[in-house]
Amino acid sequence: MINAMTEDECWELLPDGIRAQVDGYVLQDAFMRAVRVAWAAGRSVGLGLTDAQRVVHARYVRIGDRIARTPDDPLDLDSLTALAAGAPGRVVVVEAVWDGDTVHDWFVNLLAVTADPDGDHPLATVYRERAVRHLGGEDPSTRHPSALVADRVGGALAARLGVPFHFASPYTPDDEAPRRRSSHGGTA
Fold this sequence. Notes:
Blueprint: H1 7-13, H2 16-27, H3 31-42, H4 49-63, H5 77-85, E1 90-101, E2 105-115, E3 119-126, H6 128-135, H7 145-161, E4 165-167
Parallel strand pairs: 1-4
Antiparallel strand pairs: 1-2, 2-3
């Protein structure tokens, strides 16, 4: 980190072309790409990874009203039912599976698991921010908001479809929790 420089001072150390590229990625809501560019170019002037992350965050704050945000996946029952109906094969279970990355931390993927053909079909990704908005101020208590929303929405969808709902680790993020598998080796 450069001796407590402000984000604006760090930003000014970057060449014009790099600043334009960083802003381009920010406007596309591509945080990690923007950080990668700022860090790669900034190393030559002493910017570290933390500096690059601070600079990109500051750009999000400064030009945030112009960002083409990736739309949230729908979490309403009618939309999820329509998505499940579009999956190839017969839906045999609705499953919630933990995942995570450096941008969103932990999140939950809702999947329609099918037979004939066997497969997993994404229905929605429930990120923390979306889950908090979906809960509308409700305190998720000791559970991760994404888990609470995925549990409710996934359970309701499974009930509507008349199939089981499986969430192997509803209280603790675990991207290696056991998946639901049938005795013949496929998913079910």
